[in-house]
Inverse folding.
C-alpha cells in the first residue's frame, strides 16, 4: 500500500488529486482478496485500471484506490483469455501477431481489457459484443466469483449492465477469434476506403490494424506522452441517440442554424444516432476551442476529445465539458452525455 499517490499519474487525462491509499494488485487472487477485505470493512474503494475513462476531481479520493494490474493473456485454440488489467492494445497486437483476426478494428483504444465489456467498447464498425464469449465477475455483494455469458450483460451502444454500478468487478474476459487471420467484415466506410476495400469485405487483420492505427492517429486518438492532443479520455461524449418523436424537431433546429446541410446520422435501436463531434463543431466549438492559451481545450484534431495541455485541473476540464454540453443544448436542443466516469464531481 502506498499513501497519497496522485491519481493524475494513473489516468490518461492526467488530472485528479491523491487517494488516501493505493493498493496495487498484480494477480487476480490479490485483487479478489483486496476487494473482498475492503468491502467487508466498509472502506470506500475506487477501482482503477487503464485510467482512460476516468475524470477524478482535484480533491482526490478519500479511500483506497485499487489498481487492477493482473495482466495475463493466453491464446488457446481460437479463443483468447485476458485478465482485466491487461493493456487492451497489447491484447489486440498479440492476437493479430499470432495470426488471428477479430479484434483489429479495436486497435489503439486506450485502457484495459477488463473495461471493454463494461461499456461495450467499439470503433470502426466493430463492438466487443461481436466477439465476447464470457466474462469472469466478482460479485461484491456476496464475494462470489463466476462466469457470465454476453446474454447476461445487456450489451448496447457504449453500455452494459455493468456500467455505472460498483457491485460487480470484471476479473477476466474471453473472446472468440477468427483462425483464418482475416478481419471482421469492414463496416466503416472511412476504414474500408483507407484499405481500398468494399464495405463488408474482409482483409488480413494486420493490414486492418495498421489502417486503424493510422486513422486514430490522425484524430489524435492514440496515446502519446509527448503530444498534448492525446492527453484525453478519448471521446468525452457519447453520440446522442434521438428518440423517433424528437428527430424532426432536432433536424429543424439544425436547419434553422446551419441551413440545408447534410447531417451525419446512423440508424440506432431506439431512434437516430447523431454525431456528437459534428454537433459540437457546428454549435461553435471548433477544434482547439477555446484557444492555445487555455489549460484545457478541445483536441486540435477532433472536437470530441477534451484535452489537458499539461497544467489543467479537473475543474478546468469540467468547466470546458459544461460549456460544450450547454452550448450544444442551446444550439440544437440535444443533451450530450459524458462517456468517462466522473469521480467526486458531476457535470
Ligand atoms: N466531426 C466533426 N468535427 C470533428 C470530428 C468529427 O465535424 O472534430 C464529424 C466528422 O466529420 C464525421 C462525424 O463527426 O461526420 C463522425 O466523426 P468520426 O468518424 O471521427 O467518429 P466519431 O463518431 O466522432 C466514433 C466513436 C469513436 C470511434 C470512432 C470510429 C463515439 C462517441 N465515438 O467517433 O470512439 O473511435 O467513431 O469508430 O462513439 C471513444 O469512444 O472514445 C472513441 C474514440
Amino acid at each position: 500500500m502506498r499513501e497519497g499517490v496522485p491519481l493524475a499519474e494513473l489516468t490518461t487525462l492526467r488530472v485528479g488529486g491523491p487517494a488516501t491509499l493505493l493498493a496495487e494488485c498484480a494477480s487476480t487472487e490479490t485483487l479478489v482478496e483486496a476487494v473482498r477485505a475492503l468491502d467487508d470493512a466498509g472502506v470506500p474503494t475506487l477501482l482503477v485500471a487503464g485510467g482512460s475513462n476516468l475524470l477524478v476531481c482535484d480533491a482526490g479520493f478519500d479511500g483506497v484506490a485499487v489498481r487492477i494490474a493482473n495482466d495475463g493473456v493466453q491464446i488457446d485454440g481460437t479463443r483468447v483469455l485476458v485478465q482485466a488489467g491487461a493493456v487492451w492494445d497489447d491484447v489486440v497486437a498479440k492476437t493479430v501477431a499470432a495470426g488471428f483476426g477479430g479484434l483489429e478494428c479495436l486497435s489503439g483504444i486506450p485502457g484495459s481489457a477488463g473495461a471493454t465489456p463494461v461499456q461495450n467498447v467499439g470503433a470502426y464498425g466493430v463492438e466487443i459484443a461481436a466477439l465476447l464469449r464470457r466474462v469472469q465477475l466478482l460479485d461484491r455483494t456476496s464475494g462470489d466469483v463466476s462466469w457470465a455469458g454476453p446474454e447476461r450483460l445487456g450489451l448496447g451502444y457504449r453500455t452494459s449492465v455493468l456500467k455505472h454500478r460498483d457491485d460487480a468487478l470484471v476479473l477476466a474476459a474471453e473472446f472468440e477469434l477468427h483462425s483464418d487471420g482475416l478481419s471482421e467484415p469492414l463496416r466503416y466506410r472511412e476504414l474500408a476506403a483507407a484499405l481500398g476495400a468494399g464495405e463488408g469485405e474482409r482483409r488480413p487483420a494486420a493490414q486492418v490494424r495498421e489502417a486503424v492505427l493510422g486513422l486514430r492517429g490522425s484524430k489524435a486518438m492514440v496515446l502519446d506522452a509527448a503530444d498534448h492532443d492525446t492527453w484525453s479520455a478519448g471521446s468525452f461524449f457519447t453520440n446522442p441517440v434521438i428518440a423517433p418523436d424528437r428527430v424532426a424537431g432536432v433536424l429543424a433546429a439544425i436547419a434553422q442554424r446551419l441551413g440545408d446541410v447534410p447531417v451525419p446520422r446512423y440508424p440506432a435501436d431506439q431512434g437516430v444516432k447523431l454525431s456528437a463531434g459534428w454537433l459540437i463543431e457546428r454549435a461553435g466549438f471548433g477544434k482547439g476551442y477555446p484557444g492555445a492559451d487555455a489549460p484545457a481545450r478541445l483536441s486540435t484534431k477532433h472536437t470530441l476529445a477534451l484535452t489537458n495541455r499539461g497544467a489543467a485541473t479537473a475543474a478546468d476540464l469540467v468547466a470546458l465539458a459544461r460549456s460544450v454540453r450547454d452550448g450544444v443544448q442551446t444550439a440544437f436542443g440535444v443533451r450530450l452525455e459524458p462517456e468517462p466516469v466522473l469521480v467526486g464531481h458531476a457535470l
Q: What stands out?
A: Residues 73-218 form a domain with the Uridine Diphospho-n-acetylenolpyruvylglucosamine Reductase; domain 3 fold (CATH 3.30.465.10). The mean pLDDT is 97. The longest helix spans residues 314-332. The first strand starts at residue 2 and ends at 3.
